[in-house]
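[audit] Reproducing an earlier prediction to check determinism. Same input, same settings, fresh worker. If the tokens differ from the archived copy the diff job will pick it up downstream; this log only records the rerun itself.
[audit] input (180 residues):
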Amino acid sequence: MIPLGILAAAGGAVAAAGSYDLLATDILTSSSSSITFASLGTYAADYQHLQIRGVVARQSTGDIANAYVKLNGSNATKAHKLNGDGSSVSSAVSTSPRTWNFSGTGDQFTAFVLDVLDFGETTKNKTTRMLSGAAVTEGSIQLTSSFLDSTSAVTSIVIGTDASFQADSRFSLYGIRKAA
């Protein structure tokens, strides 16, 4: 099985392990409702796709918080979610910007990998895909995708929440190099 993020968007080709470059990492020192990666246009000449890997926990108590991804300040036109918790599977489609869930406080972190495909292309609409896991009761895993009806190059990515990400939440931005 090929891990999510390794599979390239074009034709199912596999990106070589050395094709990933760490571009930025942000580890929160205090709680925050969002994080922004900006000036992404500077990467368009060298990278085909962007990937954000993160581990997050919510600041407040409660079981589940909603999170979202905004490209260039815009919400997804449509989002799809497939969720499994070990005993059941559910799916949903939404025009809401809330595209994934996370849970826990303290040492209960949710991990995710977000791919922003063809972020610098100006002839394609923008799509994302994300794999995440959460420690909710028995645990859950989610596969989400979103579509933004825009051919503009992605210059900023905001990951936000209706709660707050707690301190020590980590977000790392990687570039996946263009084929030679």
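[audit] rerun output stored. Observation attached for the diff report: The first strand starts at residue 20 and ends at 27.
[audit] end
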